[in-house]
Design goal:
- Mean pLDDT is 91; it is low at 1-6.
- The protein has helices at residues 15-18, 20-23, 29-39, 66-72, 86-90, 96-104, 128-136, 153-164, 183-196, 212-222, 243-250, 256-277, 283-290, 295-302, 309-317, 328-352; strands spanning 10-13, 46-51, 79-85, 114-120, 140-146, 171-175, 200-204, 226-229.
- The protein folds into 2 domains: 10-275, Aldolase class I (TIM Barrel, Alpha-Beta Barrel), CATH 3.20.20; 283-352, no CATH class.
- Strands 1-2-3-4-5-6-7-8 form an 8-stranded parallel barrel, surrounded by 4 helices.
- Strand 5, helix 8 (153-164) and strand 6 (171-175) form a beta-alpha-beta unit.
- The chain contains 16 helices and 8 strands.
- The chain is an alpha/beta fold.
Length: 353
């Protein structure tokens, strides 16, 4: 039986950050205005406005600094967050503090409240100094453990041991980066981290296996105090737990006005985007998740609307299992293998005819 979720559960909407993988982090002005108006009346605790420091090749919501956050702030009661990629700083050969200053701008009242650090679970132990630099600048810090579903029990315990040593972390996220988690795995992982850490635990679902909402609820039952969501589930690959579905379950009774605003936002802006970009649970993402593929492989393949379903199927099946990091060369090699197989099959059928 479903256990009632605590009233202290925090909701973080990351539509602009995760949805930006489809739009290159660029959204129309009217969508942004309507989104912020809806968030102002919804029971959402944190808005993740996007990424920071991704440079001129990415859109404005991949380069959110304090000035931009302050300009977008819509409520004193809703915290604003951005995500940074740990690799951008751990592999930087200059002064990390100076890079943070450039990427985030001066910390100002009404600007960014929370920095979420995205890091692969195997390199989480390297983030201690980065966390301290952010704390020294006055940010609240969350740590997102990428691809933690790939870890075995020894690696999980090792990760817990290192993360526990990082002082000042407010929350540690279990992230289903590849959309491979099942409810039992979610409960085990979130339970391990909830039991082993003093920090709050978050859960970030992907819908590659069609289990985003179910997994989010299992995470809450197992001890997660933060859950992520996006409007209409918009996010990389198959997308995420949708804001409209998650709120209906975990925060029942919020106002009719708020629900109408959110539904209108979906109908007016996000349904057309979904029709254009095609995120959402389908068999191809399920195949990718079952084979341990990074969701960008399937996203890139489905982006070619000229392909038949059979061609998409063979292309995905030719990507080596457990390709958990996206690689363009692997994608192209798989395509050539699929085309070769298809040409051979066509030639055989013509001979038979």
């Amino acid at each position: 039986m479903y256990t009632r979720i605590s009233n202290s559960l925090g909701i973080l909407d990351c539509t602009f950050r995760d949805g930006g993988y489809y739009t290159n982090w660029t959204f129309p002005k009217d969508l942004v205005e309507d989104y912020l108006a809806a968030m102002a009346v919804l029971p959402v605790d944190v808005i993740e406005l996007g990424l920071a420091g991704k440079g001129p090749s990415a859109g404005p919501f991949a380069n959110v600094d304090n000035a931009k956050a302050r300009a977008l702030r819509f409520s004193k009661n809703t915290l604003l967050a951005v995500m940074i990629d740990a690799k951008d700083y751990l592999e930087y050969d200059g002064d990390t503090g100076s890079k943070l200053n450039r990427d985030l701008g001066q910390k100002v009242e009404g600007g960014i409240d929370i920095i979420r650090i995205a890091v692969h679970y195997r390199t989480a132990h390297k983030c201690e100094s980065l966390v301290q630099l952010l704390l020294d600048r006055g940010y609240r810090v969350f740590l997102n453990l990428m691809q933690i579903d790939m870890a075995d029990q020894r690696e999980i315990q090792e990760c817990l041991r290192f993360v526990k040593k990082i002082d000042g972390l407010e929350a540690v996220y279990v992230a289903d980066s590849l959309g491979t988690m099942k409810p039992t795995r979610v409960k085990d992982l979130v339970g391990d981290f909830a039991e082993g850490l003093g920090a709050d635990i978050g859960y970030h679902a992907h819908d590659n296996s069609g289990l985003a909402i179910a997994n989010a609820l299992c995470a809450a039952e197992a001890g997660s105090t933060w859950l992520d969501c996006t409007v209409a589930g918009m996010g990389r690959g198959a997308g995420n737990a949708s804001t409209e579905q998650l709120l209906r379950v975990v925060t029942p009774g919020y106002s009719k006005l708020a629900e109408d605003r959110l539904q209108q936002l979906v109908v007016k802006h996000f349904n057309p985007l979904k029709e254009k970009y095609g995120w959402g649970d389908n068999l191809f993402y399920q195949i990718g998740a079952a084979n341990g593929l990074h969701p960008t492989f399937v996203q890139e393949i489905l982006g070619d609307r000229s392909l038949s379903g059979d061609q998409v199927f063979h292309w995905i099946k030719n990507i080596p299992a457990n390709s958990s990091s996206f690689n363009q060369a692997i994608l192209e090699t798989a395509k050539q293998c699929a085309l070769t197989v298809e040409a051979s099959m066509t030639a055989q059928m013509e001979k038979v005819a």
